[in-house]
Amino acid sequence: MRLDKYLKVSRIIKRRTVANEACDAGRVMVNDKVAKAGTDVKVGDVIEIEFGNKTVKVRVTMIADSTKKEDAKDMFEYV
């Protein structure tokens, strides 16, 4: 699954366009490498996102094309 879509579906970032812009700005890393929006995300990958002065690091535990709001938190775990 594309990185920008995963960030939206898992609700780490609320909108896909915002996720896309964060990737273009170089603020998203997958497995310690700067990632573009089209980067493939697999189970076990570690995603690191810089939100201003805060950094969020999560591990992908599940991939789904769509989820309910309650189930979105099961798609990743904080590292």
Automatic annotation (TrEMBL):
GO terms for biological process: rescue of stalled ribosome. Pfam families: S4. GO terms for molecular function: ribosomal large subunit binding; rRNA binding; tRNA binding. SMART domains: S4. The keyword Methyltransferase does not apply. Residues 1-61 form the RNA-binding S4 domain. The keyword tRNA-binding applies. Signal peptide: none annotated. Keywords: Protein biosynthesis, RNA-binding, rRNA-binding, tRNA-binding. CDD domains: S4. Associates with stalled 50S ribosomal subunits. Binds to RqcH, 23S rRNA and the P-site tRNA. Does not require RqcH for association with 50S subunits. Belongs to the RqcP family. Key component of the ribosome quality control system (RQC), a ribosome-associated complex that mediates the extraction of incompletely synthesized nascent chains from stalled ribosomes and their subsequent degradation. RqcH recruits Ala-charged tRNA, and with RqcP directs the elongation of stalled nascent chains on 50S ribosomal subunits, leading to non-templated C-terminal alanine extensions (Ala tail). The Ala tail promotes nascent chain degradation. RqcP is associated with the translocation-like movement of the peptidyl-tRNA from the A-site into the P-site. This is RQC P-site tRNA stabilizing factor. The gene is rqcP.
